[in-house]
């Protein structure tokens, strides 16, 4: 007999997040929490996995898991197919939200803001360090389109391998990075009895304002 959903609950007691520990801007805290996640053995290898939400032209939300592949002072970068469903959503509505959940640390980070394409050079630089199979896949797979069966995908991969049999594949125009430029970053630390700590950073006239939110 599986446990009933109503009975599935866990109390969070591992840590707290006090204002005194939180710097005036959120990037340093994200770096610190990300390092904690990478160094926590119980966590899955992909500490950089996050859920990205986009909104389509009809105002309907969609979310999926992606990997964060770069972080700089401007924002959070992931790579994908620009013609995919998410690429079409971002073309129609350039705002998105990403959520990291690190269960072993009882932590969540929520990031929201405008999304822009990274430069072609930045996409190409990352494309070139990917394994060959992934580089060919970026050419072969029309991400998010309906295909007949697995064989169609394998045939597209074979055709791509043949096309690049004696040259190295270059980064396709339909593939590259997006950078989310955060306007809000919220750090959530689970606490006992659901009285969690939530520190929220909001960008106001170019300055980060920090505030505590009720759990
Ligand atoms: C752990 C994990 C990591 C993923 N990383 C990526 C990624 O970095 N880029 C990507 O395009 N899709 C990635 N995917 C696949 C996406 O979840 C999704 O299926 C794909 O991007 C198509 O989404 P869309 O139809 O909403 O555009 C990943 C999936 C999982 C489960």
Key words describing this protein structure:
Pnp Oxidase, Chain A; 9-stranded antiparallel sheet; 9 strands; binds flavin mononucleotide
Provide structural commentary:
This protein has 215 residues and is of the alpha+beta class. The chain has a domain at 19-128 and 174-212: Roll (Pnp Oxidase, Chain A), CATH 2.30.110.10. It has five helices and nine strands; from the N terminus they run αββββαββαααβββ. It has helices at 26-38, 85-92, 120-129, 132-140, 150-163, and strands at residues 49-55, 61-67, 70-71, 76-81, 95-102, 107-117, 175-189, 197-204, 207-212. Strands 1, 2, 3, 4, 5, 6, 7, 8 and 9 form a nine-stranded antiparallel beta sheet that branches. A hairpin with a 4-residue loop joins β5 and β6 (107-117). The longest helix has 14 residues, at 150-163. The protein starts with 25 loop residues before the first helix and ends with a strand. The protein binds flavin mononucleotide. Flavin mononucleotide (FMN) is lined by residues 46, 49, 62, 64-67, 78-80, 84-86, 143-144. Flavin mononucleotide (FMN) binds next to β2, β4 and α2.
């Amino acid at each position: 007999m599986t446990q009933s959903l109503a009975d599935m609950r866990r109390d969070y007691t591992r840590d707290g997040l006090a204002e005194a520990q939180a710097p005036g801007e959120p990037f340093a805290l994200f770096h610190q929490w990300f390092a904690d996640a990478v160094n926590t053995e119980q966590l899955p290898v992909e500490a950089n996995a996050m859920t990205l939400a986009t909104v389509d032209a009809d105002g309907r939300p969609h979310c999926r898991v992606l990997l964060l592949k770069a972080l700089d002072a401007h924002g959070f970068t992931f790579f994908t197919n620009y013609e995919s469903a998410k690429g079409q959503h971002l073309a129609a509505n350039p705002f998105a939200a990403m959520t990291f959940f690190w269960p072993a640390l009882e932590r969540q980070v929520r990031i929201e803001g405008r999304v822009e394409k990274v430069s072609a050079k930045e996409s190409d630089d990352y494309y070139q360090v990917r394994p060959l199979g992934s580089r060919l896949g970026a050419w072969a797979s029309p991400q998010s389109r309906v295909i007949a069966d697995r064989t169609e995908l394998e045939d597209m991969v074979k055709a791509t391998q043949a096309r690049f049999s004696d040259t190295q594949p270059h980064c396709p125009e339909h593939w590259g990075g997006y950078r989310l430029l955060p306007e809000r970053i919220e750090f959530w630390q689970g606490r006992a009895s659901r009285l969690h700590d939530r520190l929220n950073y909001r960008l106001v006239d170019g300055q980060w304002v920090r505030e505590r939110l009720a759990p």
